[in-house]
Specification:
- This protein has 138 residues and is of the alpha+beta class.
- The protein has three helices and eight strands.
- Helices cover 25% and strands 38% of the residues.
- The strands form two sheets. It has a five-stranded antiparallel β-sheet, covered by helices on one side.
- A hairpin with a 2-residue loop joins strand 5 (100-106) and strand 6.
- The N and C termini lie close together (5 Å).
- Bound molecules: zinc ion.
């Protein structure tokens, strides 16, 4: 069995953003040489997410607005967590959008459903963060 591990680094200049990381994961898959197996992709930070959905800018705006309704950034004083920091909303947003995805690898390709793409969701950016890619298979 082959095993591949790589960390992808992100430095999002804004507080929040969604980034399509599918091409980077496909590059990892090529590097791994795996043609049948699984790819795990997870955010290594508790204020960022990895999730699968459609690559559509209107939808990303909708996600952002929906998350701001559920866990608004302001006022930061509304959260118990915000003693000496201001990112409680980012922890909550990450919990809603998830930590990781697992994608089947079939015949050397990510075996997606129609329109599925992998995204990095940043909720407390303006610093460097990592995503872990682990690919196993044959
Ligand atoms: Zn925090």
């Amino acid at each position: 069995m082959k095993s591949f591990r790589k960390e992808l680094w992100f430095a999002v200049p804004a507080r929040r953003a969604f980034i399509n990381i599918t091409p980077a994961i496909e590059e990892c898959l090529r590097e791994s040489g795996v043609s049948e197996g699984f790819a795990l992709v997870n955010a290594m930070h508790i204020t960022a997410s990895v999730f699968i959905n459609d690559d559509e800018s209107g939808l990303h705006q909708d996600f952002d607005q929906w998350l701001e309704v559920l866990a608004p950034h302001e006022p930061v004083s509304q959260y118990h967590h915000n003693v000496g920091e201001d990112n409680a909303d980012a922890h909550l947003k990450r919990q809603i959008m998830g930590r990781e995805v697992v994608v089947a690898i079939t015949e050397g390709r990510l075996d997606f459903g129609p329109w599925e793409q992998i995204f990095y969701g940043e909720f407390d950016g303006r610093r460097k963060k990592r995503v872990l890619v682990k690919i196993i298979g044959e």
